[in-house]
Amino acid sequence: MAAKPKLWYFCGRGRMESIRWLLAAAGVEFEEEFIETREHYEKLKKDGCLLFGQVPLVEIDGMMLTQTRAILSYLAAKYNLYGKDLKERVRIDMYTDGILDLMLMIALAAFQPPGEKEEKDAAIVKKAQARYFPVFEKILKDHGEDFLVGNKFSWADVQLLEAILMVEELDAPVLSDFPLLKAFKTRISNIPTIKKFLQPGSQRKPPPDSRYVEVVRTVLQF
Amino acid sequence: MARTPILHYFDGRGRMESIRWLLAAAGVEFEEKFLKTREDLEKLRKDGSLMFQQVPMVEIDGMKLVQTRAILNYIATKYNLYGKDVKERALIDMYSEGVADLNEIILHYPFLPPGDKDGSLTQIKEKSRNRYFPAFEKVLKSHGQDYLVGNRLSKADIHLTELLYHTEELDPSVLANFPLLKALKTRISNLPTVKKFLQPGSQRKPFEDEKFVEELKKSFG
């Protein structure tokens, strides 16, 4: 029987959170090892586990995979969340890549100096409302289906839900002009595996706080 | 017969160059429509051609594709440059993402304010010599094969070769301690399609010098 995938990262969202979401959505149990010290990180590097000296790191199917998008694509393919053919896959890639751009802004915002963070958060919300959310509202409107691609649950749906929830944490009524996204949010949240992940006690991580930022700065020395 | 792909971008490298390299390596002819002014970009946006209001955009197989990675992955799959199975694809993705990370710093370099250029160049030299090139040298050493993954040409080899050329432009001696990377670069450069692309007169774009950047800023305001 295959071993459970294992994740190495800080105890927080960062670049690993999308990977946790996708595994959880696929109903896959996973282990986590949290990096809290510089020594632990140096050891991982010395052991040759980190191809470019960076985390996220996911051990799965005998591979030590790094690079967030490589990991996400592998999981999507493995768990049938990548569409039925190449044309569906390229749409999933376009949607997830766009959303990941937005989510990277959010992940990096945590490391802004305290004075600038509020401004940065406002910029992110504005971008979400002007550039990203209208696109997905339109996609849902145009085909009238429950899921973004091919009338079937895919990685794109998971990624969009994750992004919606993260932007809502910055500005709760951000979906007020997007009725289909609101319905989408409810619908996807009620999928059993996702519903479970959204409950307290799951492996979902909270928004970054000053302690998390401190740990990351100490471990990565910046 | 399928129409030729059409690339929409500025007349420069930026984020479109890796797409040009990949199409060229696959032996695929392509057309280019250059954005020369802000109006050109606004027109594309108003037409609804740009999903997230950004370029690159590639018209291919009846679709208007955006997001560099999505475009590259589509081309790689279509032209068999993506390995033979999911596991090989994971390795190709991992390597391609590493290349993209270093390339991200390089592609911004020409557009930095003069005061920031030195710092960025130091960063490029440091990361290529200490983080990225050792990793790829080690991969090639570990299996002793001609290509990064599965003993067969893939997008990873093309992206890495492009990166080696671009890094050498900024740091001519960077490959001194990486014999296997040097050999890979030569080998890939000698593939007929790549060799053709490396010749003057191809659609490969030149290094973005200060004059180019100045003119681009003037047209786009």
From TrEMBL, chain A:
Its EC number is 2.5.1.18. CDD domains: GST_C_Alpha. Residues 3-83 form the GST N-terminal domain. GO terms for biological process: glutathione metabolic process; response to caloric restriction; xenobiotic metabolic process. Pfam families: GST_C, GST_N. Keywords: Transferase. Coiled coil: none annotated. The keyword tRNA processing does not apply. Gene3D superfamilies: 1.20.1050.10, Glutaredoxin. Belongs to the GST superfamily. Alpha family. This is Glutathione S-transferase. It comes from Sciurus vulgaris.
